[in-house]
Amino acid sequence: MQSAAPREINVLANHSVLNLSFDDDSLCVQPSPLDHAPEVGCCSAFFSRKPRITHTRVPIRQVIDAHCSERTLHLTYVDRNHPKTPMELRHLTSTVIEEEQSSLMSWSEALMELAYAGVHRNRYLRVIINPFGGPGKAKSIYTKKVEPILAAGGCSLDVTYTTHRYHAQELARDISLKYDAVIVVSGDGVVHEVINGLAQHNNPEKAFCIPVVPIPAGSANALSLNILGLKDGLDPCAAALNALKGKQMKLDLFSLNMHDEKRFAFLSHALGLMAELDRNTEPLRWMGDIRFMLGFLYEVARLKTCPIQLSIKVVDDDKQRMVDAANARNSLTQQWSPEPIDDKGVSADEGKWVDFQNPIIYMYAGKGPFMSRTLMQFPASMPDDGLIDIVLQEVIPRKSLIDAIDIAEEGGLFWTKETHYVKASAYRVKALEPSYFLMVDGEEVIFDEFTVEVHPRMATVLSPYGCYPREFKLPNPEDKSH
Ligand SMILES: Nc1ncnc2c1ncn2[C@@H]1O[C@H](COP(=O)(O)OP(=O)(O)OP(=O)(O)O)[C@@H](O)[C@H]1O
């Protein structure tokens, strides 16, 4: 009969004996009871020649590598110093104590099996880096933080730095289907190019099965925030861990159809104030996401209405029901397996065309709760409900817009009656002014008229959760004005 692999082992590191153990949830590094430190007087902890080893518990998902050669064990994991600080790569090299040498190999293999449970190891990754995205730090983010994690995780890497606009689109159009994922070290603009490149591939259906994994190195990094949540969304190490261990999650896309041309988006269509603030702060890219705040204040000062005619194929307009469905979806995917989830409460065919007449200061249509770190625009969004969430902001006083800044991260305007929030399967817009424009995933498009349709579950991303992690608090019923 085969005995179970040992889950505990004692090793020597930094002149101390450490006890390394793991269970299904975590790896634990702590001083070993076998460690008999020579003590010096009564102030032993202070005067001891040995460095003090603190007790460390690392979630099993954060273990990246464990391998051994003879009596030496190499452990690699990511961890943080404090719950609020970003992740860092850590290595621990140790020597197993002589009596436990025979267990070392089976201990490290058992740990690796748990650390990669349900996940294909040694991924083959296509890496695309925009050295000029956002504050221009993509290259050092990749070489210092991301690449060491991917290399330690045994990935094979084909890396290209973009040299011009649309380079990423060309690379995605010609991508080989043998890759396990395409890693995009940039902001959302380059992800947009990759999505449109995959759509132009000679086998688009298969190409869209290659998961796209954003590593935040742009200004807003909304896709990364939506996949990883507010806490980890701007952390390149957390994003690299997702490239290594994330599971596939399907993502709806939406296409803008204009003059026989189709342009896919994965994140947003913005019109009016929200589009102006994005376009007018383009030269401030180097500031990171602070540029959006400055742009917002400027646009609120000159408050204009949108010169458009708008029709929406509305599938749901009940805010409470939409939030309940999104919350239910999030709790459903806590025991997530990457199988299709058929929990759609509504079907796209049920939509009814509605014309919106009231003057609005912006229209924002999108997927994913966060459009930036400080803006939860679509709290009811789901990655794969086959619908696009649309916000129409009626004219409200400047002061109310300014006040909303403080609560924008929590979806501040959602419940107000001047903020219309619907889920739709399609919409169409006609400009009432020449050379009017919208921002598609943050890229400017001039239009006279266009239609939009949703493409359910067309693209693939990697995710640790199988949903958009976000906290959205319900206000007191008396506070709701809608
Ligand atoms: N080598 C390059 N030279 C110039 N422009 C490039 C290059 N590579 C990509 N681009 C363009 O840079 C633009 C911005 O890129 P990116 O998405 O990385 O940053 P961002 O727009 O600042 O971030 P976010 O979209 O998150 O706000 C994209 O529209 C892309 O076409």
TrEMBL record:
PROSITE patterns for the chain: DAGK (PS50146)
Gene Ontology molecular functions: lipid kinase activity; phosphotransferase activity, alcohol group as acceptor
Top-level taxon: Eukaryota
Entry GO CC: cytoplasm; membrane
Domain DAGKc: from-to ranges: 120-260
Alphabetized SUPFAM superfamilies for the sequence: NAD kinase/diacylglycerol kinase-like
Keywords from the UniProt entry: ATP-binding, Kinase, Nucleotide-binding, Transferase
One GO BP: sphingosine biosynthetic process
Name of protein: DAGKc domain-containing protein
Organism from which the protein derives: Coniophora puteana (strain RWD-64-598) (Brown rot fungus)
